[in-house]
Amino acid sequence: MGLFDSMRKRRGAKKRPGTLRQSSSADVTHLEEWASARKGVEAYVEPRTAVTETTVVLIAHDGEWTRRRIGSLEAAQKFGHKRSIPVYEVAKVGYPQRMRDYTERQKILQRRRRETGEA
């Protein structure tokens, strides 16, 4: 047993290094709950990379967003169809401006909270 094998065992890791975590029912549950609690939700599918499985970003009408793993583009399309959510491929259309605006607003608010000592 090598050094890193023993370290992995101590941490309770069960997967080989370099294997990607697949989407789970918890991921889908989060997406369902998030989408049902917001208006104007659209789905943007991010392709699998060497580091991350296929993911979907749900973006609400105000730019608020969440990201979770999803099995494939087809799984994202089924998810969207079932919930009447439009599904786009990020590689083809990019992210909507409202998502970038929302993220920037959150950074500004976070900075203000730090400056005023709020948690």
What does this structure look like?
By secondary structure, the protein is of the alpha+beta class. It has one domain (21-116). It is 47% helix and 15% strand. The chain has 5 helices and 4 strands. It has a 4-stranded mixed sheet. A hairpin with an 8-residue loop joins strand 1 (42-46) and strand 2. The longest helix is centred in the last third of the chain and has 20 residues, at 97-116. The protein starts with a helix and ends with a helix. 15% of the residues are buried. The mean pLDDT is 87.
Beta-strand percent range = 15-25%
Order of helices and strands: HHEEEHEHH
Number of helices: 5
Mean pLDDT reading? 87
**What count of structural domains?**
1
**Through-space gap between termini:** 45 Å
Radius of gyration (CA) equals 18 Å
Roughly what percent helix? Answer: 40-55%
**Low-pLDDT sequence parts:** none
In total, the number of strands is: 4
Shape: globular
| Largest sheet data | 4 strands, mixed
Give the strand order, joined by hyphens, for the main sheet: 3-2-1-4
Oligomeric nature of the chains: single chain
> Based on helices, strands and strand pairing, what is the structural class?
alpha+beta
